[in-house]
Amino acid sequence: MSARLSDYDYVLPRELIAQRPLERRQDSRMMVLHRAEQNIEHRQFGDLKPFLEPGDLLVLNDTRVLAARRFSDNGAVEFLFLERVGPTRWKCMVTPGRKMRIGATATIGNVSLRVEEITAEGERIVALEKDVDVYAGGSMPLPPYVNRFSDNTDAARYQTVFAREPGAVAAPTAGLHFTSDVLSEIPHAFVTLHVGPGTFLPVRSENIAEHRMHAERFSISPEAADKINDAQRIVAVGTTAMRVLETAMRKIKPESRQIESQSGETDLFIYPPFTFRIVDALLTNFHLPRSTLLMLVSAFAGREFILRAYEEAVRERYRFFSYGDCMLIL
User: Fold this and answer.
1) Dist CA 138 CA 155 (whole Å)
2) pLDDT of residue 120
3) Domain-by-domain residue ranges, the chain?
């Protein structure tokens, strides 16, 4: 198992990065990885149900993406509002940072703000002149590799059909393939993890063990905990659901598989080698080179197998990243 950042790289033609969603959510392709046999199938997302077994439970993340992207009234600065830290104070990411040093001001919707602090991670703490709804008039915070502004389509499609707990600044993208009809046919439970700014941040250390994840808020309801504990096999829908489940398992005795309802924060970084204690299968999208998410799936399926699958996905012209196709790892 490698801890070198350079060992989690691959070559991706830019034209394979999906810029828009398919017309129908359920029409994505699905690459199926069989870990035991080390073989690969090419299927459609609509083929998911036959791969499930009696007693399986899908666990999905029901976080709701906030319309957190705003622009200054003159269009010169982009703000991504992350978290309220006071009655009129907010933590946010800004682009370009050079325009918003400590003491710098801007206006959004005719409301002025001032930069009071810059965090160690480069985020800004800004003070608004009055308490306003910063999400009113905001747009979906599409990831940087989507080279366009968000529009009305994204307001619906960069959101899962089951999103209900507002708090994320990025979508749990494995869930984007599901329709209400598909989900109604499969036993499932919801957990919540509010995807934070760490999803946008690169790993900078060549030794990946030195990387530190941003903490993200999560919760597991009593109803979800009961369903999870009664299941024969757990299928995590997305890396966020996986991180919630494996975080919960690390709070109980190693010999137990019975999780408890809870809420808190997790900064769990999953990379090889990692002992998975509850997740048996994973549905996930294709992830960026050198990303923590690529390291997570490498821990689950094996780095060599994952990189071989990604090479095949490139050859077969799969669509990559948030609006792209998916992978089922069994």
Assistant:
1) 10
2) 86
3) 5-65+143-329, 69-128
- Helical H runs in the chain? 152-157, 180-184, 222-230, 239-249, 292-301, 303-315
Of 199, 200, 162, 175, which Cα lies nearest the Cα of 283? Answer: 175
Is CATH 3.40.1780.10 the classification given to domain 5-65+143-329? Answer: yes
Q: Please report the sign of the dihedral spanned by the C-alpha atoms of residue 231, residue 235, residue 237, residue 240.
A: positive
The pTM of this model reads: 0.94
200 falls in which pLDDT band (50, 70, 90)? low
What fold, for 69-128? Thrombin, subunit H (2.40.10)
Instruction: Provide mean pLDDT across the span 38-42.
Output: 98
Q: What is residue 121's predicted lDDT score, i.e. its pLDDT?
A: 82
Q: What Cα–Cα distance (Å) separates residue 122 from each residue in 59, 87, 98, 139, 307?
A: 34, 22, 11, 22, 32
pLDDT at 268: 96
Q: What is the mean pLDDT of the chain?
A: 95
How far apart, in whole angstroms, are the C-alpha atoms of residue 9 and residue 246? 25
Q: What are phi and psi of 86, to 5 degrees?
A: -175, 175
And the tokens for 317? 């012209």
- The answer to whether domain 5-65+143-329 and domain 69-128 are alike in fold is no
Place of tokens 């984007």: 176
At 64, the amino acid letter reads R
CA distance 92 to 74: 18
Q: What would the pLDDT profile of 259-298 be if each residue is shown by its tens digit?
A: 999 999 999 999 999 999 999 999 999 999 999 999 999 9
Q: Which helix (H) or strand (E) segment is 56 a member of?
A: strand 56-61
